[in-house]
Amino acid sequence: MACRVLIVEDEAIIAMDLEMMLQDEGCDVVATVASVKTALEQIGKHEIDCAFLDINLGHEQVFPVADELARKGVPFALLSGHTKAVVPPAHLNRPALPKPYLKKDVLKILEQLRGNAPA
Protein backbone atom coordinates (compact mmCIF):
# COMPACT_ATOMS: atom_id res chain seq x y z
CA MET A 1 0.00 0.00 0.00
CA ALA A 2 1.23 3.49 -0.84
CA CYS A 3 2.26 5.82 1.96
CA ARG A 4 -0.56 8.36 2.46
CA VAL A 5 0.96 11.81 2.88
CA LEU A 6 -0.42 15.20 3.91
CA ILE A 7 1.46 18.28 2.70
CA VAL A 8 0.90 21.60 4.46
CA GLU A 9 2.70 24.32 2.48
CA ASP A 10 1.50 27.79 1.52
CA GLU A 11 3.92 28.38 -1.37
CA ALA A 12 2.30 26.76 -4.41
CA ILE A 13 5.48 26.02 -6.35
CA ILE A 14 7.16 24.42 -3.35
CA ALA A 15 4.01 22.41 -2.60
CA MET A 16 3.76 21.15 -6.19
CA ASP A 17 7.46 20.24 -6.26
CA LEU A 18 7.20 18.32 -2.99
CA GLU A 19 4.02 16.60 -4.17
CA MET A 20 5.72 15.45 -7.39
CA MET A 21 8.78 14.16 -5.48
CA LEU A 22 6.58 12.11 -3.17
CA GLN A 23 4.35 10.80 -5.96
CA ASP A 24 7.45 9.75 -7.90
CA GLU A 25 8.28 7.56 -4.88
CA GLY A 26 4.85 5.93 -4.98
CA CYS A 27 3.27 8.01 -2.24
CA ASP A 28 -0.41 8.87 -2.28
CA VAL A 29 -0.63 12.58 -1.48
CA VAL A 30 -4.06 12.69 0.15
CA ALA A 31 -4.10 16.50 0.35
CA THR A 32 -1.93 19.52 -0.23
CA VAL A 33 -3.21 22.46 1.77
CA ALA A 34 -2.06 25.95 2.72
CA SER A 35 -3.73 26.70 6.06
CA VAL A 36 -4.10 25.30 9.56
CA LYS A 37 -7.89 25.15 9.26
CA THR A 38 -7.85 23.17 6.03
CA ALA A 39 -5.10 20.87 7.29
CA LEU A 40 -7.10 20.03 10.41
CA GLU A 41 -10.15 19.32 8.24
CA GLN A 42 -8.10 16.95 6.06
CA ILE A 43 -6.72 15.14 9.11
CA GLY A 44 -10.31 14.45 10.08
CA LYS A 45 -11.23 13.16 6.60
CA HIS A 46 -8.26 10.98 5.66
CA GLU A 47 -6.09 8.20 6.99
CA ILE A 48 -2.60 9.75 6.97
CA ASP A 49 0.66 7.84 7.35
CA CYS A 50 2.95 10.88 7.53
CA ALA A 51 3.06 14.60 6.81
CA PHE A 52 5.33 17.41 5.71
CA LEU A 53 4.52 20.68 7.47
CA ASP A 54 5.79 24.13 6.54
CA ILE A 55 6.22 26.03 9.82
CA ASN A 56 5.11 29.43 8.52
CA LEU A 57 1.82 29.56 6.66
CA GLY A 58 1.34 33.21 5.79
CA HIS A 59 0.18 34.85 9.01
CA GLU A 60 -0.06 31.65 11.05
CA GLN A 61 2.17 28.84 12.21
CA VAL A 62 1.50 25.14 11.67
CA PHE A 63 1.79 23.99 15.28
CA PRO A 64 -1.92 23.25 15.89
CA VAL A 65 -1.60 20.77 12.99
CA ALA A 66 1.60 19.34 14.47
CA ASP A 67 -0.14 18.93 17.82
CA GLU A 68 -3.08 17.07 16.25
CA LEU A 69 -0.83 14.77 14.24
CA ALA A 70 1.23 14.04 17.36
CA ARG A 71 -1.95 13.29 19.30
CA LYS A 72 -2.93 10.77 16.61
CA GLY A 73 0.57 9.27 16.46
CA VAL A 74 1.19 10.37 12.86
CA PRO A 75 4.87 11.10 12.15
CA PHE A 76 5.70 14.37 10.44
CA ALA A 77 8.59 16.58 9.38
CA LEU A 78 8.84 20.33 9.74
CA LEU A 79 9.83 22.41 6.72
CA SER A 80 11.33 25.83 7.16
CA GLY A 81 13.48 28.45 5.57
CA HIS A 82 14.15 29.87 9.03
CA THR A 83 15.57 28.84 12.37
CA LYS A 84 13.91 26.22 14.58
CA ALA A 85 13.79 28.82 17.40
CA VAL A 86 10.01 29.13 16.96
CA VAL A 87 9.42 25.38 17.34
CA PRO A 88 7.71 24.45 20.62
CA PRO A 89 9.66 22.07 22.86
CA ALA A 90 7.20 19.25 22.15
CA HIS A 91 8.29 19.22 18.49
CA LEU A 92 11.99 20.07 18.67
CA ASN A 93 13.00 16.46 18.04
CA ARG A 94 10.87 16.06 14.91
CA PRO A 95 12.69 15.59 11.62
CA ALA A 96 13.31 18.93 9.96
CA LEU A 97 14.00 19.86 6.38
CA PRO A 98 15.51 23.28 5.75
CA LYS A 99 14.49 25.12 2.59
CA PRO A 100 15.56 24.97 -0.12
CA TYR A 101 15.81 21.19 -0.08
CA LEU A 102 16.96 18.54 -2.51
CA LYS A 103 15.04 15.42 -3.52
CA LYS A 104 17.58 13.18 -1.78
CA ASP A 105 16.91 15.03 1.49
CA VAL A 106 13.13 14.70 1.07
CA LEU A 107 13.53 10.97 0.45
CA LYS A 108 15.74 10.54 3.51
CA ILE A 109 13.10 12.24 5.67
CA LEU A 110 10.37 10.15 4.03
CA GLU A 111 12.26 6.97 5.01
CA GLN A 112 12.53 8.23 8.59
CA LEU A 113 8.82 9.01 8.70
CA ARG A 114 7.95 5.59 7.33
CA GLY A 115 10.12 4.00 10.00
CA ASN A 116 12.65 2.55 7.56
CA ALA A 117 15.61 4.49 8.89
CA PRO A 118 16.76 5.76 12.27
CA ALA A 119 15.52 9.24 13.12
Overview of this structure, please?
- This protein is an alpha/beta fold.
- The protein has one domain: Rossmann fold.
- Helix content is 38%, strand content 24%.
- The protein has helices spanning 12-24, 36-45, 63-72, 103-114, and strands at residues 4-8, 28-33, 50-54, 56-57, 60-61, 76-80, 96-98.
- Helix 1 links the parallel strand 1 and strand 2 (28-33).
- The longest helix has 13 residues, at 12-24.
- The radius of gyration is 13 Å and the shape is globular.
- The model has no long low-confidence stretch (mean pLDDT 92).
Q: Note the beta-strand portion.
A: 15-25%
Count of separate structural domains: 1
Please list the strands of the largest sheet in the order they lie side by side.
2-1-3-6-7
**Radius of gyration from the CA trace?**
13 Å
CATH architecture: 3-Layer(aba) Sandwich
Low-pLDDT segments, ≥5 res: none
Q: And the CATH topology?
A: Rossmann fold
What would you call the structural class? Answer: alpha/beta
Form type? globular
Largest sheet: 5 strands, parallel
Order of helices and strands: EHEHEEEHEEH
| Helicity range | 25-40%
Overall pLDDT? 92
Which CATH C-level class is it?
A: Alpha Beta
Give the N-terminus to C-terminus distance in angstroms: 22 Å
Please, how many helices?
A: 4
